[in-house]
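Long-time lurker. I teach an intro course on protein structure, and each term I like to show students one example going from raw sequence to a predicted 3D structure in token notation. This year I'd like something fresh instead of my usual example. Would anyone be willing to generate the tokens for the chain below so I can use it in lecture? Attribution to the forum is fine with me.
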Amino acid sequence: MNKMNKYLLILKTFNWVLARQNLVNILTYNVRDEFYRLNQKVYSLTNKLRHAQFELLYFKVLDYFAKNGNGLYSEEVSFLEETGRLTEFPYPRLKTLDAVTCAIDPANSLPYVLHRGKKLYYPKTWSLSLVIEQYTNLVEKENIVGGGFSAKCPHQYQTDRFHVRDTDTVLDIGAAEGLFALDVIDSVENVMVIEADALWAEPLAATFAPYAHKAKIINKFISDKDSPTEITIESCLQLHAVKSLFIKMDIEGEECKVIGSNERLLNAAMDLRVVCCTYHNRDDATVLKGMLERSGYITEFSDGFVLFIWDENIQPPYFRHGLIRAKRQAFERV
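-- Reply from a regular --
Happy to contribute to a lecture. Here you go:
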């Protein structure tokens, strides 16, 4: 074979490979484009379905109380009637935040908001508008860290008589973005931030980097056993000499399991205060109250009720206590 024939053969082979690659690129692009369009349709249909479900639930709630009387929930039902919409926190807004400072940190490319002068970071994939929306929701609507933004605040962890102290080790169990832990970190001895969701690993590390001397991040589920993905409260506490303990817990309905598996800790002779969510499951408030009071704790529920619209099997009377707070009478002080 002469040089010209070799050249032609190489050229034909190259053209064939190029044509095949172009075909692959076209097919890949078409598949991705079709998948994107399909994903958008699913997202749109999911939102429409969720909206329809919420609208149906709204009328079910009002119909139930129209037939059975408002009773304990008259304020909440009246708010739903007046606003004409479903909401988890059915209380009037009393005030709003001042302008929220939000930006991308050039050092780590993470978005953040300034919370009382401290940077609270969010995932890289979140837009600034989403960050502001989520932060505003936690502060204004849920009143996570107080401030009197709503007429009643069923998801506010601390009060004038139930709060962290300067000797406390704080366990923020189910920390998510870490707002509560960041809010109290300057007022306590140390903080343990416990969050298993990998979405928050990088933001939490950035948020608490300035507090490495007093903050420990644990990327595991709190549980009744120790494993590569789980950790018990007692194992957490082995990392510190605890003078007094404040436990805040929001773990998507697993609160009863964790409280029930820590009877020895609850009965320890120490200044221990517990505040945890009671709205994820219908009977959590009753069960947790019984557990804590049997261990000698004084309990109280937070002010107001939560309408937990994300429970697909929600049943009458629909409204649930938001939080339970518990402390030992022997250690009670302002």
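Some talking points for your students: The first strand starts at residue 102 and ends at 105. DSSP finds nine helices and 14 strands in the chain.
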